[in-house]
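pasting for ref
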Amino acid sequence: MITAVSLNPSIDRTLAVEKFTPGGLNRILSRGDNAAGKGINVALTVSSLGLDAECVGFMYRDSAPLFEKRLMLNSTAYEFIWCEGCVRTNIKVFDRTAGVVTELNESGHPIDEEKLGEMVELVARHADTSDYLILSGSLPPGCPQDFYRTLIRAVDGLGCRCVLDADGERLKYGLEARPFMIKPNRYELESMTGDTLTSLKDIEKAALKYIDMGVEVTAVSLGAEGALITDGTKTLYAPRMNIEVKGTVGAGDAMVAGLSAGFMADNDLEEAFRMGVACASARCMTEGYKGIDKTMYKAFLDMVKIERI
């Protein structure tokens, strides 16, 4: 079982316009609302691979039907701590002419100490029966920046491995609890190290710093340049696959799902990396918020090229 934690879910509202004009009138050509958030994305992707997945987190009653429908349609289990009101909305304005997206993200609603305490108990209960616990995404207002550290320490000794996909202070504090794996991107690595990373060797050197801090695996997503992974003994690089990219929403979450599924199956670093890259590539080949095609994913497994650094 893979359990994904969603502390700050969102409704992604995608608005398409012909040509976005800042400060001017923009007529909306189409609109779509989708249940989203990194934890939600990870859980749904694991389910798409045919594995047992569940999502736990905060949920707001007025918005719940949209999330419950998406999770149930994908056979993904869930348990929420209920809050009043609506889930935050992230607006994505897609400029068809330029092919770019402008994002306007809400921060979410404040969470009080009582509900944070309930969340620690909920996560620990599910971690007790899970192989992997995925902690990813932003935190709602009122939630301490070290809350991921709190959760990782709360499940210590329960037998599940923790995967942390966060940035900034959330990553900094979370590292103190020594998660099994982290998945920063190049920007996040540069922000943490204060260095400009121009080569694969630079990225490897930065990734290895986290291994020295007690992390067992550092996976780095590099966008159009592919991905890199290291466990301190071996460093591997996978260049971007030659595919038609139909969307990048959730690609990093898909990589986390594939990597976790790979390690859960007791695969070695290379095979788990192959699964992560194939999963992310299948996500990029999938339009909108549909689940990834498992047949496509399996085909990509044989197409992933991996190089030793």
